[in-house]
Amino acid sequence: MQGLRNHYQVTAHDPYRPIAVFRTEHSHVLQLRPQLPIAIGEVQYIVYGMTALSVYLPFYQGMTSVPEALTLGDNKADNHSAYWKFRKLQTLALTEDLTNELFTRLTIDTDKLYNFSGS
User: Residues of the signal sequence (predicted)?
Assistant: First the structure.
């Protein structure tokens, strides 16, 4: 997942940023662990918006429900859906003089603290 957050910052490729760009709608990472029961061994991690400014949320094969905020929303911004909350936070991070490096570090630390990535 770290590779999907990289945007070649401070390199000759930085201006081109082929990954981790703001226009990213969502990103998915699939994890298959055959030694575990399917219900917990097959996981899809999803990021809403820019990978460098968000957290991969785990969706296990055995889940029977998701938080309500993940079921809300459409193509109009609102204050209720998880998607638009993530997007607004990312916009704030980019406009409030928070550097991508700082925000990326905070995202990674939060991911590790709550073990969202299952690592």
Answer: none
Nearest by Cα to 27 from 50, 9, 7:
50
DSSP result, 28-95: EEEEE-TTS-HHHHEEEEEEES-GGGS-PEEEETT-----GGGT---SS--SSSHHHHHHHHHHHHHH
pTM: 0.68
Cβ–Cβ < 8 Å for 46, 26: yes
- Shortest CA distance to 47 belongs to which of 118, 117, 119? 117
Tens-binned pLDDT, residue by residue, of the chain (119 aa): 666 666 666 677 665 566 677 777 888 999 999 999 999 999 999 998 888 788 889 999 999 999 898 999 899 999 889 888 888 888 877 776 555 566 666 667 766 766 655 55
